[in-house]
Design a protein that fits this description.
Oligomer: single chain
Strand order of the largest sheet: 3-2-1-4-5-6-7-8
Number of strands: 8
Number of helices: 13
CATH superfamily: NAD(P)-binding Rossmann-like Domain
Number of domains: 1
Strand content: 5-15%
Distance between the termini: 48 Å
CATH topology: Rossmann fold
CATH architecture: 3-Layer(aba) Sandwich
Structural class: alpha/beta
CATH class: Alpha Beta
């Protein structure tokens, strides 16, 4: 792209605001990265004999996490929608780590029936599950609704993972019981985002379900990708809190986290949706975003660190407990309502 091209770029106020917000957040993260980089469980944590299930392990921080779990000796299952791409990644990680126990399971977050089928396929192969990582997600929309009629980012980022978690809950409980319900022996890790703290604290549940099969039926709040994304990520945080309550004393710990402002493929999708030019994407990735390797560490920390075994229900960033300042985390009635409605929405899948 030449200088003459750059001078003709015209940005809307929304685009300028997004660039500024991401830039500031990324710069703050970049200046404080060293603390997160110190976590390296190799040599101290052995996952031999442990089973890990992760969604979205074919790219981004999920791909790095698959490699990390494999390096620690775990048997790893990867749920993703693109078989060819994921199996190529799996073969690459097998060659790099020497761990041959990495397997693909098909599942598409946009279609709840495929997530239910993925859970059934896993349960047909394994009787134990030690670590469930709900990592996959989307940052931008190319449509308003999922195939099942839910607001698309709520459905893909939150509800599909809620369904997966519930369908695997008995297996997680059985595993924890076999380990004498030791705190943190079994873990559920929800990869959320700092954007969860910035959105509205009250959820309009009526806006999350499509009415009359009308593809254009969408509430004004969800007219931007970022507001919708933040709401979906807040729901992950609230669900984690409820899981910690439901699973108290079971030996299963639940965590939500912000991985950092990571230079992953999700930005290519999200930024393209608001028309930001490639030059700006390159700038953001080069100067203010952290790498996928760095961004993977908080997920790994919550998954395996002994330091957090007794800290179920909390929110993490840079391998440290953080306060999520959204008032919704203190609204127990809404947390309960989200759980109840989610259970109702998934009952037929």
């Amino acid at each position: 792209m030449g200088l003459e091209t750059l001078t003709t770029i015209r940005l809307t106020p929304l685009q300028i605001g997004i660039i500024a917000a991401v830039g500031v957040a990324g710069l703050i993260g970049w200046l404080t990265i060293p603390k997160a980089l110190k976590f390296d469980p190799r040599g101290t944590i052995d996952l031999s004999g442990k089973v890990v299930l992760i969604t979205g392990g074919s790219a981004g921080i999920g791909k790095v996490n698959v490699r990390q779990f494999a390096e620690l000796g775990a048997k790893v299952y990867v749920i993703a929608r693109n078989r060819d791409k994921t199996e190529r990644v799996i073969e690459e990680i097998k060659a790099r780590t020497g761990n041959k126990n990495i397997f693909f399971i098909n599942g598409d977050l946009d279609k709840l029936e495929t997530i239910s089928a993925a859970a059934k396929e896993f349960l047909a192969k394994e009787s134990k599950l030690h670590i469930l990582v709900c990592n996959a997600g989307s940052g931008g929309r190319n449509k308003n609704w999922t195939s099942n009629g839910f607001e698309v980012l709520f459905g893909q980022n939150y509800l599909a993972h809620f369904l997966l978690t519930i369908r695997l809950l008995d297996c997680l409980k059985t595993t924890a019981n076999s380990l004498k319900n030791t705190p943190g022996a079994v873990r559920i890790v929800n990869v959320s985002s700092a954007i969860s703290a910035r959105g509205a604290s009250l959820i309009d549940f009526t806006s999350l379900v499509q009415k009359n099969n009308d593809p254009n039926d969408i509430e004004p709040f969800f007219t931007t990708d970022f507001s919708s994304y933040g709401r979906s990520k807040l729901c992950q945080v609230l669900s984690t809190i409820k899981l910690s309550q439901v699973l108290k004393d079971s030996g299963i710990s639940a965590y939500s986290l912000h991985p950092g402002v990571v230079a992953s493929d999700i930005w290519n999708i999200a930024l393209d949706r608001v028309g930001i030019q490639a030059a700006f994407i390159f700038t953001l990735k080069s100067f203010v975003m952290i790498t996928e390797e760095q961004g993977s560490l908080t997920t790994l920390y919550c998954s395996v660190s002994k330091n957090v075994a007794n800290q179920s229900g909390l929110y993490y960033s840079k391998c440290t407990v953080r306060e999520n300042k959204n008032k919704a985390i203190k609204n127990q009635a809404q947390i309960d309502e989200l759980w109840e409605k989610s259970m109702e929405w998934i009952k037929n899948y």
